[in-house]
Batch of 2 targets.
Target 1
Amino acid sequence: MQEFVVSRSTRLSRWAGLVALAVVSCLIAMPWWGTRAEIGTTTSFLGIVAMAQMWNLLAGFGGLVSIGQQAYIGLGSYVAVMVALQGGLSIYLSLPLAGIVSAGAAWAISFLLFRLRGAYFAIGAWVVAELLRIVFANTASLGGGSGVSITSALTGIGRWQREAYALWIAIALGVGAVGLVYALLRSANGLAFGAVRDSEAAAESLGVSARRVKLTLYLIASAGCGMVGALMAISNLRVAPDSAFSVDWTAIMFFAVVIGGIGTIEGPILGAIVYLVLRQSLAQYGGWYLIVLGVSAVIVMRKAPRGLWGVLADRFDLRLFPIDHRVRPRERS
Amino acid sequence: MIASSAILTVEGVSKRYGSLQVTDNLSFAIDEGEAVGIIGPNGAGKTTLFNLIGGGVRPGTGRIVFRGQDITALAPPDRCRLGIGRSYQIPHPFTKMTVYENVLVGATFGAKLAAKEAERVSLDVVERTGLMGKVNLKSAALTLLDRKRLELARALATRPRLLLLDEIAGGLTEREVRALIDTINAVRAEGVAIIWIEHLMHALLAVVDRIIAINFGAMIADGRPAEVMADPRVRQIYMGVGAA
């Protein structure tokens, strides 16, 4: 009988790894060569990449299309505020803390939210985010509805350092999110995620607990968004409930994932780039930028449901992050 | 008392949806390594019976015992891990995953095998079900026959002690059916018990040594194939043949 072996890597992916390493190194050195505006844009780009990867995990693999992930962006931002206002603690400590608090909150909220399915889940998640917004807007000690500045927590730190730190945190989150999703999808977990995404009933009949998979994805995605929220607070120096809990955050995640290609790792990165390019180039036209975003999302959904990366990957047979298994006959030695 | 050689015991199981009684006080036992066919007209409650055994549907009354353990309250993944493998009547392939990955899900989570062993079992199952030529294809690209093979392959990769096959031969050509029968008989030869819902009588008769006929959720006959097929009620209800 002929023997078969299973392999998982491609030549291109090794090259992609080297290129990615070079790009990340350049980004880390950015405070020494970039302008303030460039550093700021890169910071928010990486934050969007991280959020989009999290939403992609949730919707692209768990089938949990949430429009309430801003709940954890807001929560993470307010964790940063609380750490800052307590004093004594470094504001940078709020990052891991925001992740832990968000995961804990997500776990508690899941008992309520996981009773809902499909569109009801999506709307339910939004309601939870609104509830949190109202709670924080009515907490006077955290600035109430008008929000609060956290500049006081950063007084000892120079502007250059502050912006460099924010950039490096963003790099850690953006690259970390991509790395985490890649590692998860390549592990046995990835098989379970894909199975639940494609058919819950069949997955369950093959020993995969769909509920556990969904809860895992929800906790990871929420922790990730919480940390991005803390990053946003640290880089904006100001947190207000209306913007921290704004549904715009989820709209950005949705846009980046859908435009780029849902269920792929490359897609959300590409989508985040497209989003920022559109936002920057249309900034002077005010509200038009939202209209263009919406229209382009609709066109991509209609014409290329697998997103821009899907189109590119098909055309050039690209796989930067190979997660599939290839079976081939064992070569005779 | 039920003999200790039973792998599965269904005891007084009923299920109703509103006023519709889909399973009506069903009781039967399947022995280790036994192959049993389930027949009955459309809507008789055959697939519901599989849902009850597989765990997708909880019975209103009664209990289900698998290898001495009461599994009535267990969820489908737990039942799978205990050794109940299932193929669906309408194939549910993981369309964005390759054939190999589909099978690997069963070996990894159903049989709970470590990576190397799961790989070996998956390749073996792919080979045995005749899918090796398409092993790297996304399952969305498969034909009906191959989707049915994939259903069987995934279920086998969970290393079941009891295999539930739901109309796996329906819609296949004669030649394809014969290949399928060979595969199923080979599985049976390894000591796996099989319950097979099938309309295609000659396929069923080539494998099973017992047939259970149900109608309106209730058992109307249970015995050796020849006896069941000779039963006037079966002939009347199932075959649509009168007393003539």
Note: Chain A touches chain B through 26 residues (CB under 8 Å).
Target 2
Amino acid sequence: MARRHDGTADGRLRTLGEGGRAYGLIAWMWVRSTLAYRTSFALMTLGNFASSALDFVALLLMFSRVHALGGFALPEVAFLYGTCSLSLGLADLAVGNAERLGARIRDGTLDTLLLRPAPVYAQIAADRFALRRLGRTSQGLLVLLWSTGRIEVDWTPGRILMVPLMVVCGAVIFGAVFTAGAAFQFWAQDAAELQNSLTYGGNALLQYPPTVFARDLIRGVTFIVPLAFVNWLPALWLLGRPYPLGLPPWTAFLGPAVAALMVAGAALAWRHGVRAYRSTGS
Amino acid sequence: MLYMAVAAGSFRRYATYRAATAAGIVTNTVFGFIIAYAYLALWDQRPHLGGYGPAQALTFVWAGQALLAVAMIATGGLSELQERIRSGDVAVDLYRPADLQLWWLAADLGRAGIQLFGRGVAPMAVGALAFPLALPGDPLTWGWFLLSALLGVVVSFALRYLVALSTFWLLDSSGLAMISGLSCMFFSGMVLPLRVFPDGLSDLAQLLPWAALLQVPADVLIGARTGGALLRGLAFQAAWAVALLALGRLLQSAATRKVVVHGG
Amino acid sequence: MDGVAAEPLIELDSVEKVFTVRRRAGRLRRTRHEVRAVDGLTFQVPRGEMVGYIGPNGAGKSTTIKMLTGILVPSGGRLRVAGIDPSLQRARLARRIGVVFGQRTTLWWDLPLKDSYELVRRMYRVPAAVFRANLDRCIELLDLAPLLDVPVRQLSLGQRMRGDITAALLHDPDVLYLDEPTIGLDVVSKAKVRSFLRETNAERGTTVLLTTHDLTDIEQLCHRVMVIDHGRLVFDGDLAGLRAAADGERTLVVDLAEELPPIEGVPGARTVKVEGPRQWLAFPAERSAAPLVTAIAARYPLVDLAVREPDIEALIAELYAGGGAARRDPGGADPAAPDPLRP
């Protein structure tokens, strides 16, 4: 990231603005590049939708054999599925391609990004921006809409507002994980798959209710990598279910704070990584 | 022998991707845990679902994670070969004295060999430590499992080879590769054991070639296929392997004619 | 050039770059080595100069360029480009420099060439009038007009290089770094690129630093050559000086009307190879070939002739051999011949 002499709030804001602008410019170029192959784009979007839907089909098949999983009925599980899929889909769409960092280091093309007058993170996050990922996003959204009509919730304005809020906070948390995973590749260039265990793995985890899992696993995703704040805790609040680990009720509203903390951590890791790269060149 | 050397070379090449292997092990293990708990909840409700006990269901999960990379269950093509066909470099391969299909099969078996050690053993061992698995006690069953897994890799290769050869006719085979990969995920038992599928779908899925990749080897491992059923399972795998490889040869000779006539 | 009045645009003072390399020693043990890729480099380049920066592979050329462009942070020493410390203000520096890597295009593969320029305009915030003027100039001098609507993937290597050079100049950079700008290009493209660079330097005063393996690039473009090896500057001067320092020899290739015994009695030259009617004569690089040609033409049935330059590796090798003690095989000067020094 560009370190400037004016480390003031104003200077940081300007860098952020520059980054957003560069992101938009590059993402738009990639969208236009993709549209040069329309058939392929359509097929890939469909595939993205289908690969996400496969998980939901598995859930449906399970519920064809049982009425409840961990004490949760199908609409409730579908609500969990829809929220985390939508969050992951949005994060993947926005910054998922940062995982190409390792490949760019290996073939030397990261250097060409460092030559442009824009923050490297904005450029790498927009790298190969893939609209086909709207496939996963729209699939998650469909399941979410289907389930909201079927879960038993007293929809007050506050509860209605909670749904978009948790989706956005969840997307930011997943985005921070994508970013931290990419930053790790400054040290381990072919470990791109590692972050899948937290992103796609996190998605696989969060689609089931917490009652399914062992306490240690839940502790891990609450206190170490706080994925539980993506959808579990806010959804349990909406559904009026008890919280795992005897957590107090207000933890359901910690999403924004956790997201901010994760972003700060990921930004730190990224900075550290760029600095390491610029001193070793590999 | 030439193809042994190809397989050994591929084995060594994949052995050098240490960081990628480590990352893959972690990811497979994490997914193993998540799916294992989900299955526990499922079998808690229906203790004999699909004819499996809870321990057998858990073993199925970890067998799936162990074989995911080995049999390339989530992948629909041979990206390297597709790239060679797209760039036209494949013309050189076709004029080589070696057979194209056997060459790539040998390379794929070499890759599967190293990944069985690199990415198969570790998740299975972690799974065995964390959960009560129904792993076979006698070495003979392990032997049958390895044979069945090997046949699964051959069927997987034969399918991916067909997809790769389609590049000769399609401009961009990535769409077909993706459809093939998704079918493989779903119909291999990776998403859910085929025996748990609703009855009609279950019977159909167990006749399709993808069942050879995971469902049959996993059943052999957890003791759901013994005696005559074991032999029928292996024969099923072998039959699909032969049929798909033969289809691959047919397509290959058509592709060769196309290259010879049009010059690539 | 008025070297006294011109302020130095690029300044290096004892710049160092040390890498720590871990090597596998035995099964588990790893040893750490320090590698000095750049070892106390000091030089200045005044505004408007065109400099050739050459050296064998792994000498520290690209490490230097990476430090000059802000990609890499030096381990020690002081470095300024246009008054900016590249390691601290990478993004600000980016607006003042243009970079072309010979084998790595920055153009958008699937989009028409002109779209890549549009991105440069917006990303560098180039004022519309400046952009138009710069682009028009490049289009005219580099014959880009028919290429603007063609997707980059359909361009030839030479067309792409012309496109890349244009992209690097649209924002009016003070310095242009070129890494192997003519590698792999056909003769026509090479000539076009060279004359364009010459004109850009003369008209706009753009400072140019180029690395190359092609001595003709240096000969036609650069008044000054710097040779780097093992991270140190081993030569800094003009090409004639480099030739003299290396005691280089050029080769005169003559085609005679018939097969004849080796040419003899030409002062200052000796025949080093005969192949049918073709003969190779070596002569000191700093001398003119004209008297030799006159002398040969007077006594032999001369059909055709060519003068071959020693290539850079050969020159540098001789720089080290100390006064050209090792005589070269004349085939070594033939660009088509395999060069043992080039990996």
Note: Chain B has a mean pLDDT of 92.
